[in-house]
């Protein structure tokens, strides 16, 4: 049996015990067996001991909206207007990507994510089976949605079903369906997505109400908002939908998001960088809508650091509401952790540092000038820390990074290979 004891930690539980000032976590196999303050005094039973040295132990981040292989496009075609950038740079580059390239891009993204404390992510891309293969090797949790886009979708649906069959018993991979958006798909396909998701009990990951252009296109075609359109064809009925962006919302949209139990994923940095707008996060929270947090792809961010994203999220809500109390540090951290699991409907199993929860957690170094003093641990996490402060990462009871060193990825090799690949792709 795999046993791990983490001691000497400030524990953010995201649960009933709130914060334990000096405590320990005892792990057996892939579950948390005991969480308490003070010293662990029972028999160690051969447990591997990690001394957190006063660091902060908390649930890992859930990056709830990514396109992970886009790490290969980080900074490519920077500074162009959106449509020119997509048509002249992003799409031609993506058209050249092979399955092997997607794997290398995934490794690059996973290195960055694990090193900055992410233990689970919700992805939407193509060649998603290749991403899943990498996820299994690396032992992080991937909730992976193969994209459904354009006019001909039969093969895409078949791909999703093959992927479902391949990974249905996987510990690390969960298969989702990823209809790209209402403006890149017709109504019939969106309806088909709903039917398929109900049949497989599979969550749906989609982009919704991201830009004013999208709202205009859908209004003109259907005289509805994108959210009303999906609702009108029954896509949300009996499914779990995780909707990225939700920037431009109308009164009825809030009602639908709430009544159909839809999670909105906030992507503040992408929304700012692409000048899409400011999502009404505090209003959604007032409506009791679950709001999670994501970075979106690195080509519109340009990193996968959830600390950075939390800080942007909180600052943006304070400024746009002209209210310093808007989106507290605690609520921001909850968006970046537990709310991702609520989105997926598994928050009774993962996302808290409590007995019987899955052993997914990170340790943040506090022995750094910018992390001291600790008057308010939530504030330090959201406003002072950054991705480089994550020291140790545990997923499903496996230590995948310890003392800043990755255990399941040959970092040096994949950094080299990513550099080499990108040159090769550009020359194709
Ligand atoms: Ni996106």
Structural class: alpha/beta
Ions, cofactors and other bound molecules: nickel (II) ion
> How many distinct helices?
15
**How much helicity do the residues have?**
25-40%
Name the beta content range: 15-25%
| Global morphology | globular
List the uncertain runs: none
For the biggest sheet, the summary is:
9 strands, mixed
User: What is the number of strand segments?
Assistant: 17
How far apart lie the N and C ends?
49 Å
Describe this structure in a few short sentences.
The protein is α/β, with parallel strands linked by helices.
Descriptive tags:
428 residues, alpha/beta, nine-stranded mixed beta sheet, four-stranded parallel beta sheet, binds nickel (II) ion
How does this structure look, described?
The protein is of the alpha/beta class and 428 residues long. It contains 15 helices and 17 strands. It has helices at residues 82-95, 99-115, 128-138, 154-167, 187-200, 212-222, 226-232, 251-259, 268-273, 281-286, 306-321, 329-336, 338-344, 377-384, 411-427; strands at residues 3-12, 19-28, 31-37, 48-51, 56-58, 61-66, 118-125, 141-148, 173-179, 204-208, 241-245, 263-266, 291-293, 361-364, 390-395, 398-402, 405-406. Strands 1, 2, 3, 4, 5, 14, 15, 16 and 17 form a 9-stranded mixed β-sheet that branches. Strands 6-7-8-9 form a 4-stranded parallel β-sheet, with helices on both faces. α8 links the parallel β11 and β12 (263-266). The mean pLDDT is 97. Bound molecules: nickel (II) ion.
Which SSEs are present, and which pair or pack?
Blueprint: E1 3-12, E2 19-28, E3 31-37, E4 48-51, E5 56-58, E6 61-66, H1 82-95, H2 99-115, E7 118-125, H3 128-138, E8 141-148, H4 154-167, E9 173-179, H5 187-200, E10 204-208, H6 212-222, H7 226-232, E11 241-245, H8 251-259, E12 263-266, H9 268-273, H10 281-286, E13 291-293, H11 306-321, H12 329-336, H13 338-344, E14 361-364, H14 377-384, E15 390-395, E16 398-402, E17 405-406, H15 411-427
Parallel strand pairs: 1-4, 1-5, 6-7, 7-8, 8-9, 10-11, 11-12, 12-13
Antiparallel strand pairs: 1-2, 2-3, 5-14, 14-15, 15-16, 16-17
Helix pairs in contact: 2-3, 2-15, 11-12, 12-14
Bound molecules: nickel (II) ion.
